[in-house]
Amino acid sequence: MADSNAQSLVAGLVASHGLQLRRFLLARVRNVADVPDFIQEVYLRMLRVPNAESIRSPEAYLFTVAQHVVQQQALQSGPSGSPAQLMRMLDPSPSTHDANPELDASAQQCLERLQKALDGLHPRARAAFILSRRDGLNFDQIAERLGVSRPMAKKYLTKALMRFRQSLAEQD
Question: What is the pLDDT of residues 124-161, one digit of tens each?
Fold first, then answer.
């Protein structure tokens, strides 16, 4: 029963938001040829939702899943590419940056500082941050993945966040 609900949900989303999803992904990916693969991954993840009827806003959920797919690809592909490309991939609303070049330049500088801060982190602190933000894991799950205690996972994440806060404060 739940499987047919997920299938009907995805079929409805394809019909009503397929073109929007394609445009959403085109604005965020480096290689246009990857867009069909990303679309397929988004729909596959939507089909795996155990309780499709519990989704209050299917459109918002669809674009959240798409954003996660893009972010996961960006993190897996590494720090290659310009900060502007990375910003387009990670920003949920790039049109606001396109309209204001000053904002775009400021955002690029901020992104460069944050990327530098991320690169300067201890590998475990960086891993804890990525597991938390990209994968949505809690402290217990991060600790298990990293093979450390829960307080240590919390400490790693706290250090990463402090480094980012410090980097942003230096910008002001």
Answer: 988 888 888 877 888 999 999 989 999 999 999 898 88
Q: What is the dihedral of CA 128, 130, 134, 137, to 10 degrees?
A: -10
d(CA 23, CA 90) in angstroms, rounded, equals 15
In the three-class reduction of DSSP (H, G, I as helix; E, B as strand; rest coil), residue 5 is classed as: helix
Model confidence, pTM: 0.46
Tokens of 29: 């990916």
pLDDT tens-place string over residues 46-105: 888 887 778 888 888 888 888 888 888 776 665 444 455 545 555 555 444 445 566 566
Interatomic CA distance for residues 164 and 120, integer angstroms: 10
Judge whether 5 and 49 are in contact, CB under 8 Å: no
> What token pair was written down for 150?
């829960």
Sequence-distant (6+) residues with CB within 8 A of 73 are 29, 34, 38, 89
The two structure tokens encoding residue 6: 């997920």
17 CB-side CA count, 13 A: 19
